[in-house]
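Researcher: Good morning. I'm working through a list of sequences from a screen, and I'd like to move beyond sequence-only analysis. For each chain I'm collecting a predicted structure so we can compare shapes side by side. This is the next one on the list. No need for commentary yet; just the structure.
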Amino acid sequence: MSPDNDKINSGISRELVEYVSNIKNEPKWMLGKRLEAYEMYLKTPLPAWGPSLSGLDFENMTYFADPNSRETSDWNKVPEIIKKTFEDLGIPKAEREVLGGVGAQYDSGIVYHNLKKNLEDKGVIFENMDVALQKYPDMVKKYFMTDCVPASDHKFTMLHGALWSGGTFIYVPKNVKVDLPLQAYFRMNKQSSAQFEHTLIIGDEGSEITYIEGCSAPSYTTSSLHAGCVELFVLKDAKIKYISIENWSKNTYNLNTKKALVYENGEIKWVNGNMGASVTMLYPSSVLLGDGAKSDSLSIVLASGNQIQDTGGKVTHVASNTSSTMRSKSISNKGGQAIFRGLVKITPKADNTQSAVICDSLIMDNESSSDTYPSVKNQNSKSRISHEARVGRIGDEELFYLKNRGFSEEEAVRMIVGGFVGPIIKALPLEYAVELNKLVEISI
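Model: Good morning. Structure tokens for this chain:
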């Protein structure tokens, strides 16, 4: 079955959902999940809260953009035009120097994927999500959009469930520690398109892994949609560090969904940087299911030039002796809006829990703004919760002090902003810290 191009490129339809599943040769149960998600999507309205999504033209968007290139583990076999795009972004140079493996997605398809042999020998699985569905169908069926992020969560997880394509699948065996980070890079290159990559990571008992995602898109005159999904399973005594640096173009709507289920003594660390997109709605979520589970979230948001960065995080404490921290830093400049939404929920049986939410905002001019909406739902009296929020500007005294020591005003501003974003820079591998610093400097 192959619908004509007009139907593929004229909005979402049942025919398109079936086409995507068919072209990927998926098992019937996956097509069933897609169609179920599609039916829910049709019946569900857009969110009635948060930034306006009226700029998205759902009817005239391309929902599946095939890169017309087969996946390869040989960089030399990647088409030149695609290869140049990723080489400009530092791939595969980063793979050779600091990474254990790399995946690269161009629009709706993975074009390159590779894993170092020593990790493969330890039983680590690092695959394109489409390939994992073929190689490990039982494992994918067990975890894919079931307990962590069901398609029914909200309208855009429904859309994602219907049309997901590409992404990353990682399984780390018991007690295996992956010393070098694994990375995937997602490039959305087609105008008026949507990208729905799916990331699924399973850290088995006692395992450890750091995973890095990078995202970007060129600037066009029409709007695009990014609605990826990240599902993390942190099993007993496991540790996952998830790093994401997103620098979408300013005509992109970034409506991503990320969630981790954390079991006994497991630990999830979120490190997020959001620099681009016209509108971002992103709230990484942790559900602490096992005794002693931990969640730590650190994010930097830059809202510049009329961008709306609506971000934050969610933590649900289900088990006892769990702890969480949520630290957010935002910079608003040139009319940008930074909005933080933080939700902490403590259930009745979650004794001896601790949670801290810290929000720091830096407003660079009179046209920009920063808002904070913390929410706490505490059903257990044996818990400790704290919240701090600070909003400030770069003061005349600080500028005067630095200028008197020989710095220009521009250099002084950069020094102050550099100190402000310092904690998240320290949490990144060196190469990515340098790149993030450059992005911040360009934007201010």
